[in-house]
Sulfate transporter (Streptomyces aurantiacus), 499 residues
Amino acid sequence: MTGHMKLPHRFPYRFPPQLPHLRQDFAASLVVFLVALPLCVGVAVASGVPAELGLLTGIVGGLVTGLLPGSSLQVSGPAAGLTVLVFEAVREYGLAVLGVIVLATGLIQLAMGALKLGRYFRAISVAVVEGMLAGIGLVLIAGQLYSVAGAQAPASGLGKIAGLPGLVADSAGSTTALASFGLGAATIAVLVLWKHLPRKVRTVPGALAAVALATLATPAFDLPVATVEVRGLLDSVQLPGLEAVGGLASVGVLGTVLAFVLIASAESLFSAAAVDRLHDGPRTEYDKELMAQGAGNTVCGLLGALPMTAVIVRSAANVQAGARTKASRVLHGVWLLLFAALLPAVLAYIPLPALAGVLVHAGWKLIPLRGIAVLWREHRGEALILVVTAVAIVAVSMFEGVLIGLALAVAKTAWEASHLKLEITDKGAGPVQAHLSGNATFLRLPKILDSLESLPQDRPVELDLSGLHHLDHACRTALENWAQRHSAAGTEPVKVTAR
């Protein structure tokens, strides 16, 4: 056989495109990296742990959680919402036990995701979650104001707030404190005013710009302020030992684990719902997202790093920067890793008052002032739950405050679910007619009995229960006892009509 094989002009097979949106995702990943960098460092410093541990959590959030299914565009890392709880845990139990707490949190999240419990976190009262974030914001602001002034903050939330007047008085007489406060205040001013600058300027994230300007101003004006201590990424890793694992036998540690699970899971899944409203791409699979968060926290716990949640600030920046797939959040983890590996010495130039200013601004944004006003006009019960939850977190502690909020939400729901209407018809002659409609529960029992016992004892009564949707055992027993007492006076037996 001679001649050459003749090939078709067009090869019929086309290879599948790999990463078709790489250009958009690459650009978005750089934006998210620049947003995440100062927040990772700031959250770590505010939590009382080495700055590198915040970067480590951001890296895990990108390279581990970012690769897993769930929510394709939301970004995970250390969050300001857990700062107060982490600080209290480190102060109470030590840095070694923090890794065990985060590890246990991750394992529980994995189990809850496997059991398909993720969707049920959406049933948590929004007022409780917003109250939780508001309480965290208040404690965070109060605590970081001390760092802005270069002072040591009191331990309790109430102590932080009560000590603020003394902080102002002490700072006024100290040159060092005034320099520190001025730098922190300038950082906050940059963050507040940044959104009013031209669009081209705002391509640089506000937090990065504020911290960068403060870092340049510190040596330029020879400001006597503290800067970040650098230990190195590998030196900061602390694998949990057997002694630290034994800390799980403590009731306090277990309570902290439960608080971590509740807050981290709720914040992540509420963030996922918010991110879904920002784009038209695939919707969040809540159970898978909970497992992704659990996997990330498990790895963070093994490395002794900070806990992670999905962070709405980074996630919104990711969407607004044009991200199309999960590649953007994975790449942001790569950039954080390269920074921590190649440029760790840069951290030593960052002034602590600037990071404190970033967190004061972040704490302020956690307080839903407009949301409280709207709730007060439309749902005063929900507004009350929000405020009580926030105040309880400040006055008592994070865990107890959240429990108080949840208890109030359950009590409010139970009270509303037991709506009951009693109509009395007395025509002057013949039996008195009493008609009950709605839900008769023990919560409404005093009202029912007061009304029935006020009926004339010498008149027959017809009790119509056909309008009740629910009659619990306590109410049924109480109505039967009342009927017996009413009939014992010599009148006709109470006639009861039911469905």
In short: Residues 67 and 317 are 19 Å apart (CA to CA). Confidence is low (pLDDT under 50) at residues 1-16. The longest helix spans residues 251-276.
